[in-house]
């Protein structure tokens, strides 16, 4: 299998799409687009300034998100502020220029948790938290091209 085989929507491969719940999903959508460079693919508003479902893309990747709702997923999902800012998952996004992406995210108010550095496994990258404390890692290492 090559990276070309992993074309979204080709019907022959599975895709992994992380999902998030934000307390202020409309603000999160705007911030993720501004700070990280995501593009709105689809946004479905809900009642009372909420988001029922949204899809944001970054290159061939996608995330889905919506507003925090009572009883969502039977209580299995917790927002970072419910567990002292901790998280059991971090998303890694491949970028062309780690320094430029870092500067953009930092200027938008991302909380930097690891400065840009050379990684032992290759490439350069950094880590930060978004406006609602979800951890993200961005870097130039692409395991499909190593």
Short recap of the structure:
The protein is of the alpha/beta class and 146 residues long. The chain has helices spanning 25-36, 98-107; strands at 19-22, 39-46, 50-58, 61-67, 91-94, 111-118, 124-129, 135-139. The chain has 2 helices and 8 strands, in the order E-H-E-E-E-E-H-E-E-E.
Main beta-sheet strand count, sense and barrel state? 4 strands, mixed
Total beta strand runs: 8
Helix content: 10-25%
Percent of sequence in beta strands: 25-35%
Unreliable segments (pLDDT under 50, ≥5 consecutive)? 1-6
- Helix and strand content put the structural class at alpha/beta
Shape, per Cα inertia axes: globular
Order of helices and strands: EHEEEEHEEE
Radius of gyration: 16 Å
Q: How many helical elements?
A: 2
Average pLDDT level:
88
């Amino acid at each position: 299998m090559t990276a070309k085989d992993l074309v979204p929507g080709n019907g022959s491969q599975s895709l992994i799409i992380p999902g998030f719940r934000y307390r202020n999903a409309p603000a999160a959508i705007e911030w993720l687009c501004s700070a990280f460079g995501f593009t709105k693919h689809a946004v479905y508003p809900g009642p009372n300034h909420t988001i029922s479902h949204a899809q944001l893309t970054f290159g061939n990747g996608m995330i889905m998100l919506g507003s925090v709702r009572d009883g969502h997923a039977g209580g299995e999902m917790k927002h970072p502020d419910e567990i002292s800012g901790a998280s059991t998952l971090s998303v890694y996004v491949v970028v062309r220029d780690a320094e430029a992406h870092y500067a953009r995210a930092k200027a938008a108010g991302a909380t930097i948790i690891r400065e840009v550095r050379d990684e032992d496994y290759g490439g350069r990258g950094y880590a930060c938290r978004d406006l609602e404390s979800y951890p993200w890692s961005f870097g130039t290492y692409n395991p499909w091209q190593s």
